[in-house]
């Protein structure tokens, strides 16, 4: 009887160690989601006088569990000049090893931004050479991890750091099979 209890104890300990290792792997997978800007749309000026640019961020869940993006806080820069911040808390589900697209509407306060730029910088940034316009996004997302219907983990800081030229986004819009994720 004592031998059976020892074996059961050893199996239980190794089971918990295995679950812990597996949990760390899942946590790393969630923190290392693949993301890519795949589309943009110039929306023009809105009623507030701000210029609207819409971005689509493709997110791939590389883990084997379903995740829900529960919020994001993203700074967007054009050629290293911060042009805006976008926050959202709309829940978005991403199935295991699947894709989802996050819509990011950016409103640029043109008067404030252009006040920060010299005439030379403004002319450069407004050039029509899309390969010289670099969009950078930096921030974080929050997510919850689910097994079936049960939440097992909340990750509050999934880092986002990504830079791409408008030319690269345009190329991926024209040829979606060449995306990175």
Describe this structure in words.
This protein has 181 residues and is an alpha+beta fold. Helices cover 29% and strands 48% of the residues. The chain has helices at 2-31, 110-116, 119-125, 166-174, and strands at residues 34-45, 51-60, 66-78, 81-88, 92-94, 99-108, 134-147, 150-165. The strands form 2 sheets. Strands 3, 4, 5, 7 and 8 form a 5-stranded antiparallel beta sheet that branches. Strands 1-2-6 form a 3-stranded antiparallel beta sheet. A hairpin with a 2-residue loop joins strand 3 (66-78) and strand 4. The radius of gyration is 22 Å and the shape is elongated. The chain starts with a helix and ends in a 7-residue tail after the last helix. The model has no long low-confidence stretch (mean pLDDT 79).
CATH topology: Immunoglobulin-like
Fraction of residues in helix: 25-40%
Strand percentage lies at over 45%
Number of domains: 1
CATH class: Mainly Beta
- Classification by helices and strands: alpha+beta
Overall, the morphology is: elongated
Q: Tally the helices: what do you get?
A: 4
Order of helices and strands: HEEEEEEHHEEH
Mean pLDDT: 79
* Whole-angstrom Rg: 22 Å
Keywords: Membrane, Transmembrane, Transmembrane helix
Protein name: Late embryogenesis abundant protein LEA-2 subgroup domain-containing protein
Transmembrane segments: 7-24
